[in-house]
Amino acid sequence: MEISEYVNPEGLRIDGRRRKELRKIEIEMGKLEQVDGSALFVEGFTRVMASVCGPKEVENRSKAVEDKAFISVEFLSATFSTRKRTKMSKKDRRVLEICSIIRKTFEPVLQLELFPESEISIFIQVLQADGGVESACINAVTLALIDAGIPMIDFVCSCTGTYLDSFCILDTNFIEETAGGSILIAAILAKSKKVVSTQMKISRLKMENFTELLELVVDGCSRIYDLMEDATRKRTKEQLNSQTALIK
Amino acid sequence: MHYSKTILKKTKRGNVLRVVKEHYLRDDIGFGSELITQTGEYKPEHKPLLKEAEEYLILDTDIIMHQMDAIENSNALQNVVILQTVLDSIRLSSINTYRRIRKVISDPNRHFFVFSNEHHRLSYVHSITGESPFARNQRAIRKAASLYTNVFNQKIKIVFITNDLENLKKAQDEGIFSETIYQYASRLKNYPEFVDMLVEPQKSEKNMNIEKDNKDNKENKDNKENQENFLYPQHLTKKEIFEGISKGKYYQGTIHINPNNFYEAFVNCEGYEESFIIQGRKNINRAVDRDIVAIELFPKDQKVSLSSKIIEHTNEEDEDIMIEKYQEKEKEETEENLNLNLNKNQNQNNNKNRKSQLQSAKIVGIIKRNWRQYCGSIQLDQVFLKQGGRFENLLFIPVEKRIPKIRIKTRQVDALLNKRIVVVIDSWERNSRYPNGHYIKTLGDIGDKEVESEVILIEHEVPHESFCEDVLKCLPLEQENWQIPQEEIAKRKDLRNLCIISIDPPGCKDIDDCLHVRNLDNGNYEVGVHIADVSYFVKEGTPIDIEAANRSTTVYLVDRRINMLPPLFGENLCSLHQNIDRLTFSVIWELNEKAEIIQTWFGKTVICSKAALSYGEAQLRKDDPKMKDEITESIRTLNKLSKYLEERRKEAGALTLASPEVHFSMDSETQEPLDVEVYQHKEVNHLVEEFMLLANISVAERIFEYFPQSALLRRHPSPIKSQFDNLLKSLENFNLSLDISSPKNLSKSLDKAIIKNNPYFNKLLRILTTRSMTQAVYFASGTLDYKDFFHFGLAAPIYTHFTSPIRRYADVCVHRLLASSLDIEAVSDKLTRKESVHEICKVLVPKYGIEIKNQKC
Amino acid sequence: MINEPQRIVTPGEILTQESDFLRGHGVSLQNNQLTATISGVVEKVNKLVSVEPLKSRYNPHVGDIVIGRINEVMRKKWKVEVNSTQNAILSLSAIILPDGIQRRRTSTDEMNMRNFYKEDDLICAEVQKIQWQENKIFLHTRSLKYGKLKIRSIDYLLLILGVNGYCWISSPETVPKIDKKNTDKNNWWVSTHQKTDFEKDLSTDPKSAKLRIRKRFIDDESQRYKSFTQEMREKIARTRNSIFVLSTLNMTIDPIAIMKIYSKSLSLQLESKDMLEPNNMMNLIDAKEEEKI
């Protein structure tokens, strides 16, 4: 039987990272032209595209909320995104779960009361899945919402960590995520460092290990925030420059 | 933190899967020597390679794979760089070797350093299309070696050691100073034994293939000559074996050599009740005891009865004669059988004969060798004393009779004569009667008591080294003066004022259980079982925990004990001595008049034992009507209650089985054993046992409730009919029989099986029954159905081990699970996943052949 | 003021420590500190702090001229999609009746609402008033320059740049026998953004819009193609793509800029279909910059 070493005694993980290192992150905003806002969030080999339409008139009247906007989320995982080509139906439990996580994460952050009886629809497409998909989705949605110019009180940044073989590991890839450790997905408000949502998979963890893991993940989130903030600022600057190009 | 921007794709095509993995290259990996300092290096203080060293060695994969014993046991190799590529390929091919090399690496005196070349920006190599992974790895190793050569430039000599001549040549061409391990060993002056430990160079695969081709050709031409050249038939390749197995042509099984007859072996195949018999040296074909082999059956009618002859190792010349004789006899026997077959009148007789016959087979290939280290001595008459310094071919006789003699080479004959030495097998060529091996270490003089004890321990693979430093560091600093911290007492229920007593065998040092009883106002009784709280001292995942898990039990020898925990814990801090405050884990019941459980309480407590009694003392107190003190009254009440428990258990069908327990009386001064006596069971023994069983069952229910998947339980499977065949057949002679369908029936039939004028007969029968039963085993609750949890011997639907954490590791795990179920201390995921608990259970199987005290059912 | 570097903020960023500022768009009060809620440029007018987004939905102001599409015909009003957070409302009383007489709307008018504007008609209108609380926009077309957009018989290209980001390019050719129902088919949709004049592509519901247009193409394809000369089509396409180039590159869309791109593409002898290739786009822009210098 092959026993895998997820962190070898030299302190390297299978892919060569150290315990607390993130994967390579790339961010592209506003790539899609047909929607109000869009963002591509690439973390290692995990690749998620999020797009946002709205706020707009609610399509399905019965869902309208009188005093604030309603968030609808659609999640789609490309059949080629995972190792096995599987098609997830829209009513798949995982799909519904992730949609509800996204909705619950963003409801308190967005200033929905500014848009009564409107709808903000979020569309998430996973192009490639290599661990940390939920986190990448949250990050991509944050960026897409910012790109769409929808007011939100703070950045929501998310990161995944696992407690595996008595090590806390940050930013898990597919192998680490399926290794059977306790997985923690946390989303925080970047500026206030408030944890807005956490999710545990295969739990039962010592309290002290949980605290350690949470600290690690929160630290990961704030590092991801730096990158996201940077990308947003860069994007805004680009827009501004081209806008003023003619005025010059 | 440097990530390289390069992301490389590793593809692995199994079925239709194409796995793409990320691979980061780094700049922060150091070279492990103080001579080179880089900026931004990770862990810059970790530099095990000495700067004073003359040279740094880089070992190739094959060196570590084949010369592990030499690396492990000799200090000749120091300042060694182990490459990650090498480690990875070792881990894939042998997890055992991997663990051993890791152990060597972690030894600070050896100055081994792991260089993560696969993730170093300068030493990573891409695989070229069409290149085999092996060739790619070799290239990676050479690249890393040349990187080292360049980096250390003239400062220190880098030596690349490989036995692969092709690789050696390529490395030399690339400007790396390279040599074989033999060349290196010959340069070494200070370590003469190092050469002995090396495994002989093996014929490379290519040669083997050529040989095979030649052989095939020859076989066609001259079959006879060939058979003379090769003593043994060729083994099939793995591929052929697996094809054969899937076609049903061959069978896979574990071989067991008959200890009384070296030319006879049995193979147990899964799914077959009867084992297959293999007779003769050629048929056994170089299989060593406990190897996993592939066998081919002889035609069905060739059934063979077991030979009752005892054949031991003899000198080479005699052997053939013996075999011939043996084979002749065998022939006669078979012929006889055939005659019988023909004779229809004797049909009945024949059938009877057949029962003890087994299907014979021959070994066609070895699936997995299970070679280990063997203890033994040099065969004396082989030694012709010569001037030292030269290699001598010697024969080694293992202590274990199942193991063949081993041919070893040594330069230090004088030093090895009349010594117990340890040897391993390297290979067994077709043209060699005996396997080739090499020397590992000397234990001491033959016949010395200490040495022979160690031989026994090694032969049974009992870890018996004294506790290593890491483990001892886990002990409290105050050593025996350790006091229970006040805050710990505050957290626990204080039972120090209760009259708590312990009853154990005389001279028992590791007392892990105590009892108390008191009358409640409502007429019921409160009975408490208090078990030493080992899990308070042994925290999960610490070195002491890992070591204890590895040892799994305390092993009792005549003159010594191989402790599972360091004596400071086992005999002092955890042991519940008289009049000392101790931490315990308690189960307290409220029992009614008939000893039925009204309610159960679990929790951590602190106690102070009022009396540590021996069985004898307790029995005396109980029987003495004059004694009326609290302790004695407690014993009487407990005894009364235990009678109810015992009765109920028997009613349910618990077996009173017997295993011969002997007790050595020791000379109090010299610790020499003086006499052997059969252990006497007293009434109070049962008393303690009953309450321990009750505690175990209560705990089992509790942890199963909280950890339905991962509770560590113990079950005793119902006996297998066939294993009782012999016993039942013998009983027919007495007109008796046993009903093994349920514990109750078995118990009843055992009670009936009495011969009037032979009082020992029933006891003997019980011993034999015990022997015929399957062993009780640990398991994770998630791996089986609830109905399979049944403990046959105790007739309990669910059972575990809770009461002896000092001497059994399983109990420690159970303690942790129980603590977690009470929200006292959480457990790691190791104990909450059924897979990992299942792994733990596998390790906990009692070591082969060792009788473990108190390991009843 | 102009030389002062514009401060870019991202959501969650604290705008100022002083507390006596007033809160404008894109600003929220978190822990007693003024915090940005969108990413954009800070603007301070006296004591009012606001963050101007560089991209958002149409934020209406009274008096804006917008182009919208009729989404729904309701009782006494139309719902008009104008690229804002809510559909705008055009009430029956806010239009000019065909007879041009100012009078009370009768129930007959109510019955005839579809004759005035029906679903998917494109209209040009002005923002009449905004009810901020309910997030409602009211439009009116009480002027001859507003109303249904259709092909007119004038010899120049008609271009309406709606402040809400939608543009209208129309053919100047006289089309014989225009079926009134199908007038708007010869037109291209481009959306640009109003106010900051930033571009934002397509209407709210691209899927359904495309479907409907496709269907009508088939209905009277033959007639439609007959009514245009190759030359005219070429012009329209070139104009459309000029706007598209500007919008793709986040540049301000105004008539001058459009004209510049248009003429540059001619001088570079680019075919209109090639204008949208990234390389060519950059060439067109560079050219524009050079001209400036």
Question: What structural keywords apply?
Answer:
heterotrimer, A: 248 residues, alpha+beta, Ribosomal Protein S5, domain 2, five-stranded mixed sheet, four-stranded antiparallel sheet, 4 helices, B: 857 residues, Rossmann fold, OB fold (Dihydrolipoamide Acetyltransferase, E2P), six-stranded mixed sheet, five-stranded parallel sheet, 29 helices, 31 strands, 20% strand, globular, disordered C terminus
Explain this structure to me?
The complex is a heterotrimer of chains A (248), B (857) and C (293). Chain A has 248 residues and is of the alpha+beta class. Chain A has a single domain, classed as Ribosomal Protein S5, domain 2, CATH 3.30.230. Helix content of chain A is 30%, strand content 29%. Chain A has a 5-stranded mixed β-sheet. A 4-stranded antiparallel β-sheet of chain A has the order 7-6-8-9, sandwiched between helices. The longest helix of chain A has 41 residues, at 207-247. Among the domains of chain B are: 27-207, 3-Layer(aba) Sandwich (Rossmann fold), CATH 3.40.50; 373-459, OB fold (Dihydrolipoamide Acetyltransferase, E2P) (Beta Barrel); 469-717 and 774-849, no CATH class. The model of chain B is unreliable at 203-227, 313-321, 338-355 and 847-857 (pLDDT under 50). In chain B, a hairpin with a 5-residue loop joins strand 26 (581-591) and strand 27. Chain B is an alpha+beta fold and 857 residues long. The two termini of chain B are 56 Å apart. Helix content of chain B is 36%, strand content 20%. In chain B, the strands form 9 sheets. In chain B, strands 20, 21, 22, 23, 26 and 27 form a 6-stranded mixed β-sheet that branches. Chain B has a 5-stranded parallel β-sheet with strand order 5-4-3-6-7, with helices on both faces. Chain B contains 29 helices and 31 strands. The two termini of chain C are 23 Å apart. Chain C has a 5-stranded mixed barrel with strand order 8-9-10-12-11. In chain C, strands 1-6-7-3 form a 4-stranded mixed β-sheet, with no helix packed on it. In chain C, strands 2-5-4 form a 3-stranded antiparallel β-sheet, with no helix packed on it. In chain C, helix 5 crosses helix 6 (255-267) and helix 6 (255-267) packs across helix 7 (278-292). Chain C has 293 residues and is of the alpha+beta class. Chain C has helices at residues 107-111, 113-116, 206-219, 221-226, 230-248, 255-267, 278-292, and strands at residues 8-9, 14-16, 22-23, 27-30, 33-36, 40-45, 48-53, 65-74, 77-81, 88-95, 122-131, 136-141, 147-148, 158-161, 166-170, 188-191. Chain C is 26% helix and 28% strand. Chain C has 3 domains: 8-53, RNA polymerase II/Efflux pump adaptor protein, barrel-sandwich hybrid domain (OB fold (Dihydrolipoamide Acetyltransferase, E2P)); 65-209, Beta Barrel (OB fold (Dihydrolipoamide Acetyltransferase, E2P)); 227-285, no CATH class. Chain C contains 7 helices and 16 strands. The interface between A and C is large, with 44 and 46 residues.
